[in-house]
Amino acid sequence: MTANQWKQKGEFVKIFDNEVFVIDEGKHNDKTMVILHGYPTSSFDYYKVLDNLTSEYRVIIHDHLGFGFSDKPKNFSYSLIEQADIALQLWKTLGVNEFTLLAHDYGTSVATEIIARHNKKHITVNIEKLILCNGSMHIELSQLRFIQKL
């Protein structure tokens, strides 16, 4: 699959005045999985496993703002807090309140912010399962690239 074919599978949803690219497939399933991709890539990372996942889940994966096909606004801080705001608003817009959360790399940091809000009861989503892959949960142990340090 090419990136253009992936783009054709998705749609753009306006979240906080920005266009966010979203893949939303497997809507016939009762369970939902939301995916937060890593750095410096995009939702395209999941093109080989999407069909397998949609056999069991409705799968929603978006490109974080500044990544992939989503907008890249100049006057945006790209903080993890703002990326969490966007993900939560997107899921709300799509009518998703109960899900399995799969996060990879940079996405684990966004997921950590969402989990902190969930634990403090600042949001009312139901995270049924949490899957964290290749994340730098302990920043002191990570081996950051030069661009990440900047």
Polypeptide structure, described:
- By secondary structure, this protein is α/β, with parallel strands linked by helices.
- It is 29% helix and 27% strand.
- The chain has helices spanning 3-9, 50-54, 80-93, 106-119, 146-149, and strands at residues 11-15, 18-25, 31-36, 57-62, 98-104, 126-133.
- Strands 1-2-4-3-5-6 form a six-stranded mixed sheet.
- The protein starts with a helix and ends with a helix.
- Please state the overall shape, judged from the principal axes of the Cα atoms: globular
Beta content comes to: 25-35%
Helix residue percentage = 25-40%
Strand order of the largest sheet: 1-2-4-3-5-6
Oligomer: single chain
From the alpha carbons, calculate the radius of gyration and give it in angstroms: 15 Å
Structural class based on helices, strands and sheet pairing = alpha/beta
Return the string of H and E elements.
HEEEHEHEHEH
Give a concise summary.
With 150 residues, the chain is of the alpha/beta class. The chain is 29% helix and 27% strand.
